[in-house]
Amino acid sequence: MKNIGEVKFNEVRQLTEHVNTICDFNAGIKTMSISINDLEDGSCDVVFGGSGSRTDFLRMYAMLTENLTKQLYKMHPCDCIPVSLQAAAGMGISEGLEEAKKEGE
Length: 105
Fold this sequence. Notes:
Strand content: 15-25%
Structural class: alpha+beta
Low-confidence stretches: none
Strand order of the largest sheet: 1-2
Oligomer: single chain
């Protein structure tokens, strides 16, 4: 039996799929979403959804980075924010490339 967290995260997964379906039929709408469910064993379950072109995703990434920077800086006004964001982006890029290479083999 699933716990309530798993049930709700499954609802998030279904909503993400529904949003992507809506965007697929409306070329002017671009979307990118990520949801993370922390699991008891320390790992996490991730749902990523997106609709758009490579250029759209890069534009959304820039907008996300801008807004994330503003929010993090408001919470903690320090010059460590850009360094932390760059480190997180670098780690994500490295892990994403490794996973993509494995999936492509």
